[in-house]
Specification:
By secondary structure, the protein is α/β, with parallel strands linked by helices. It contains five helices and four strands; from the N terminus they run αβαβαβαβα. α2 runs parallel beside α3. It binds iron/sulfur cluster.
Length: 171
């Protein structure tokens, strides 16, 4: 291997090869600038269903200490905004995120407030089973252009075969 042509060795000025190598390395690793664009916030572990395929350790709706507090969510948002990426996508997951709606509202409002000074491409997604959606939540979702990610499996699979209401107070 010709180490000189690869800029590993030089018998002249070192500054030029170092600049060349730095440019080459920056270009090669350029994808890292967008590496941290997707952020998932597990806003609660509580869920109103008990699907037999559930991949998370979901808890019943009356369980305690399984919701992310507004204070913690605020710190998470501040950490997310340390990302060098121009694109920031925040995905609310659970459990069933709508159960901890107050923290979602607070998080979206706070992130938008921070973004007024940063002008990132800010996007939100709520991964939800939609069971506890209502007009008020839909208004907020529409107003803040939040995307919804859900599953339409109920069209194909009998309800009782895969999903079971996990809410202990449900009949
Ligand atoms: S709705 Fe989602 S989080 Fe809740 S039990 Fe089913 S798979 Fe798990």
């Amino acid at each position: 291997m010709n180490l000189k042509s690869k800029h590993f060795l030089t018998d002249t000025d070192v500054e030029q090869p170092i600049k060349l190598l730095a440019t080459k390395y920056r270009t090669k690793k350029g994808f890292l600038r967008d590496f941290t664009s997707l952020h998932m916030m597990v806003i609660t572990l509580r869920c109103n269903q008990k699907c037999n395929y559930c991949q998370v350790s979901s808890e019943s709706t009356d369980a305690h200490k399984f919701d992310m507090s507004e204070t913690t969510a605020k710190k998470v948002i501040e950490t997310i905004f340390k990302s060098p990426s121009q694109n920031i996508k925040i995905e609310f997951q659970g459990g069933e995120p709508l159960i901890n709606w107050k923290t979602i509202e607070h998080t979206v409002n706070y992130a938008e407030k921070l973004n007024k000074f940063q002008s990132r491409n800010l996007q939100f997604v709520i991964c939800t089973n939609l069971i506890s959606i209502d007009e008020k939540k839909l208004e907020f979702i529409k107003e803040h252009k939040i995307d919804i990610s859900t599953s339409l499996e109920l069209i194909h699979i009998p309800f009782t075969a895969k999903r079971v209401f996990g809410c202990l107070s449900s009949p």
